Amino acid sequence: MDRPLLNRRLAEFGTTIFAEMSALAVRTGAINLGQGFPDTDGPEEVREAAVRALRDGRGNQYPPGPGIPELRAAIAAHQERFYGHLGLSCDPDTEVLVTTGATEAIAASLLALLEPGDEVIALEPYYDSYAACIAMAGGRRVPVTLRPRPESGTYALDLDELRDAVTDRTRLLLLNSPHNPTGTVLTRDELAEIARLACERDLLVVTDEVYEHLVFEGAHLPLASFPGMRERTVTIGSAGKTFSFTGWKIGWVTAAPELVAAVRSAKQFLTFTSGGPFQYALAEALALPDSYYAGFLNDLRAKRDLLGDGLRAAGFEVYQPQGTYFVTTDIRPLGHTDGHAFCRALPERAGVVAIPNAVFYDHQEQGAPFVRFAFCKKTEVLQEAVDRLKGLAA
Ligand SMILES: *Cc1c(COP(=O)(O)O)cnc(C)c1O
Questions:
Q1: Ligand 1 pocket: which of 241, 270, 271, 360 to mutate (most atoms <8 Å of CB)?
Q2: Which residue has its alpha carbon closest to ligand 1 atom 5?
Q3: Pairwise CA distance, residues 235 & 222, whole Å
Q4: CA spacing 20 to 30 A to 336: which of 1, 41, 178, 262?
Q5: In whole angstroms, what is the distance from residue 82 CA to residue 105 CA?
Q6: pLDDT tens digits along 345-365
Q7: Where is the Aminotransferase class I/classII large domain (predicted)?
Q8: Which of 18, 37, 127, 360 most suits a substitution to test ligand 1, by most atoms within 8 Å of the C-beta?
Q9: Does residue 295 sit in the same domain as residue 281?
């Protein structure tokens, strides 16, 4: 066969870096701070709820395509509880769609909303599925790069650059705040400006807010709550991130009825439905008291500080995350400039695995000296990682 098997749309996307780095972690026995999955499961009562559903025969056969009514009601109640004061609420029957993780929500949204050739603006560095899903939908990605600001130790969005990236072919903004991998949380002013731009240029927005409950300073502001955004925004959440059950792959979309109907059209032919018993369990999880959400946030904040201080002590320049469970570092103070080479050698040198940020860029050189560590791990694991990394400073 002369023709390559993998089609041109996907040819540029090899195996994800996470597979390579996780295999390296296993082979070397290094502590894996690469892939962002928690090393402790979520609340025991939520696991028990899944067991009960499974035993009681709830969800063992095809659940409804849009999600079980109990979970859609719980998602709507969650939106009302956390964002009702911002004027956001949603109808569980027409404005909520349960998906196979945020990953399917992103894929279905792009497959549903894009025509081939439509331009999609995404904030670079970006989550690895964005580029592949834009490509599968036949869209053209247009990166707008978040720039490191060493003086403040944060990343910043250049609103002029975003404005200039919009053309007559731009159909959609694909946003992510809190932002993986940089930990950036877009400010109220930035979100307001993005909303103005979207309205002015009549753009759709898909906003990945899977880290909505991991904003360390201040509160999460959904983009959909800004003027004019309700009818043009698809908002994505994930139980994997909020309840530390990443293997259950339950996510959701909330949006106006026309948008939900469009996304559902694509979703029904991807998986149709998934995770029956887990849907019942997560309906209960979303209703957990405020103490759960506060405890989760406080735990991750303490872990952010533990790892951040340790990385600083080891000689990294640390970009303090305002949200998510990732921290981006600059390796140049350690005398390195190539994050790829650094991450390949780190397991042998220090017994720790991290991810080179370059993989999250179209403009790889922009991310070259940056490396991402995940801190959604047990305190003793982070402490051990910090102890191992100390050797780098010597
Ligand atoms: C983890 C993650 C996802 C995927 O979420 P799932 O619910 O596991 O599919 C999507 N977007 C971002 C930014 C993530 O970090």
A1: 241
A2: 102
A3: 8
A4: 178
A5: 21
A6: 999 999 999 999 999 999 889
A7: 30-389
A8: 127
A9: no
| Among 189, 142, 194, residue whose Cα is nearest residue 168 | 142
Q: How far away, in angstroms, is 206 Cα from ligand 1 center? A: 13
- Judge if 193 and 211 occupy the same domain: yes
pTM for the model stands at 0.97
Beta-bridge partners for 235: 207, 254
How many other C-beta atoms are found inside a 10 Å radius of the C-beta of residue 243? 25
Of the candidates 319, 379, 83, the residue with the CA atom closest to the CA atom of residue 180: 319
Last residue of a domain, one of 287, 305, 321: 287
Antiparallel, parallel or unpaired: β 355-356 and 352-353: unpaired
Q: Is residue 8 part of a domain?
A: no
The residue range of the domain holding 374 is 17-42+291-391
CATH number of the domain bearing residue 164: 3.40.640.10
Please report whether residue 3 resides in a domain: no
Residue 176 Cα: closest atom of ligand 1: 13
Atom in ligand 1 nearest the alpha carbon of residue 104: 9
Q: Are residues 186 and 280 in the same domain?
A: yes
pLDDT surpasses 80 at 1:
no
170-186 confidence digits (pLDDT tens): 999 999 999 999 999 99
CATH of the domain at 374: 3.90.1150.10
Q: Total domain count for the chain?
A: 2
What is the atom index within ligand 1 of the atom nearest the CA of 105? 9
